[in-house]
From TrEMBL:
This is Transmembrane protein 135 N-terminal domain-containing protein. Residues 22-44 are annotated as: Disordered. Residues 24-44 have a biased composition (Basic and acidic residues). It comes from the Eukaryota. InterPro entries: Tmem135.
Length: 496
């Protein structure tokens, strides 16, 4: 029973501290029967014991940490204590421990089965058995089978927590897929993570108009940073949600209340905007987005120039701090580093400025170009997509921003009610997404290990699979490390 709780090395160290005698040398000991289970353990029993031992430790440590966090959260927010089974310290650590145990068990079972199939002579005669054997001998079979352990995510009670974990793993998998395509040298020069940003900004822009509270504050603040050329800052937060009502009316023709005082307004909540709109404006989208400017191009240029100065100042400070923190590595080429800093500042400022400016100005473009039957709430998707194309300017630097925006857009899309019906009928789609992401990540690690660039992700995959010698099906037992014996021998030498 102790083998499921502590390792043989830890048990041997405990025996030494208890009896106060030195650890026997395994190479020169004469009693091999007594320590045979430590020096030459049976493969399957040792693997199972190690997996159970590690999963148990994950559960205990995770339960302690999350219980402390939960108690602090309840005390700060003055909430009532939930049931024991519904607390953070039980379900989430249990899910992680079951995931680890199942992933190791399934991966090792399939690897051992592949080793036996390769050693078995002859081929099965029926075609079905041959196909089954070829499928089992595939290099991606262990990774695919081990990914079924992702079903353990169901034990987490909060759907938002499951959704957040699934989307995070999915975006990391997409990142490594893009890396695999770039490593293969088959992708065109313009391909990269920036291609995700137009779709992400389209969803974020639509969620902003609909008043989605799940959009992060930084994206909401960036999209709502109105200068005087666009919607007024004070009225903007109240007027932007009204734009969805105007879009449902398919943007009717605008007639100024100054010229036609008895004209009925499309929305009573936008009276202040319509009263301030210039009488020469003809399109309702122009009256809503830039009521004080007649020219759409003039409003776009005015916004871009003013916002570019602010963004350039912010990015120059940010990149200057990074430059000073790594000043020692630029001593040989200071001028080159300064020119690179200026180049990065210009590209990042242009990207952020033009993406927001184009998103708002594209509303006017869509009303001028598209037919009236296509002018609906979907126009905000088109505007956000056109604004996201500005990411091409900074496609090599803002990799983290592109992935973070994609993650936020997916969370916003999943928490709205505009999902397709076939997704609403699937039970726990976030769990299926998590399983598919784990399978793809495992396959990428097997076939394209260079695509997984994060050292933390590599270590996590190795922990989920177990020791490397087990994953490769090797039967040789590596010599056990004795860190405690080294420290003990040093103390004995000092005492002597």
């Amino acid at each position: 029973m102790l083998d499921y709780l502590i390792t043989p090395e830890e048990l041997q160290s405990l025996k030494f501290y208890r009896k106060r005698r030195p650890i026997p040398n395994r190479e020169h000991t004469g009693d091999t029967k007594k320590d045979s289970k430590y020096t030459a353990p049976s493969g399957r029993d040792d693997e199972l014991k190690a997996s159970i031992r590690l999963s148990g430790r994950v559960f205990v440590v995770g339960s302690i940490v999350l219980t402390i966090i939960d108690k602090l959260r309840l005390r700060l927010h003055r909430l009532s204590k939930p049931r024991f089974w519904s607390g953070l310290g039980v379900r989430i650590p249990l899910s992680l421990s079951i995931l680890l145990l199942l992933h190791r068990f399934l991966h090792q079972v399939v690897v051992r089965l592949q080793g036996k199939l390769r050693q078995s002579p002859g081929e099965p005669s029926p075609r079905i058995l041959r196909s089954l054997k070829n499928a089992l001998l595939s290099p991606i079979t262990p990774s695919t089978a081990a990914a079924l352990s992702g079903v353990a995510l169901v034990s987490i009670p909060s759907k938002n927590a499951r959704l957040t974990i699934s989307i995070y793993v999915f975006t990391k998998t997409v990142e490594y897929l893009l890396n695999a395509l770039l490593v293969s040298d088959r992708a065109p020069w313009w391909f990269g993570s920036w291609t995700l940003f137009p779709f992400a900004l389209a969803q974020l822009f639509r969620g902003l108009i609909d008043g989605d509270e799940s959009i992060p504050f930084i994206y909401r603040k960036a999209l709502m940073s109105f200068p005087t050329s666009y919607i007024d800052r004070v009225q903007g937060h109240a007027m932007v949600p009204r734009m969805a009502d105007v879009a449902r009316l398919q943007f009717p023709t605008f007639q100024s209340t100054i010229v036609f005082p008895r004209k009925e307004l499309a929305s009573d909540g936008m009276k202040a905007v319509f009263r301030e709109a210039h009488p020469a404006i003809r399109h309702l989208s122009c009256a809503v987005s830039h009521p004080k400017s007649v020219s759409c191009a003039g409003a776009w240029a005015s916004y871009s120039l003013r916002q570019f100065q602010k963004n350039a100042g912010a990015f120059s400070v940010f990149y200057s701090i990074l430059f000073l923190s790594n000043f020692g590595s630029f001593r040989g080429s200071i001028l080159t580093a300064i020119s690179g800093l200026i180049y990065k500042t210009i590209r990042s400022s242009s990207f952020t400025t033009f993406s927001v400016a184009t998103s708002w100005s594209a509303l006017c473009l869509c009303q001028r170009v598209l037919p009236k039957r296509l002018l609906g709430p979907q126009i905000f998707y088109v505007s956000g997509f056109l604004g996201g194309l500005a990411a091409l300017v900074d496609r090599t630097q803002s990799h983290f921003l592109f992935l973070d925006a994609t993650r936020s857009a997916l969370l916003s899309w999943c928490r709205t009610k505009r999902r397709p019906r076939y997704l609403q009928r699937i039970p726990s789609p976030e769990v299926l997404l998590f399983v598919a992401s784990i399978a793809t990540l495992n396959i990428l690690y097997d076939l394209r290990p260079k695509s997984v660039t994060s050292e933390g992700a590599k270590e996590l995959i190795e922990i989920l699979r177990g020791p490397r010698r087990l994953a490769q099906g090797a039967s040789r037992v590596l010599p056990a490390r004795q860190p405690c014996a080294i420290a003990i021998n040093e103390r004995e030498l000092k005492a002597a």
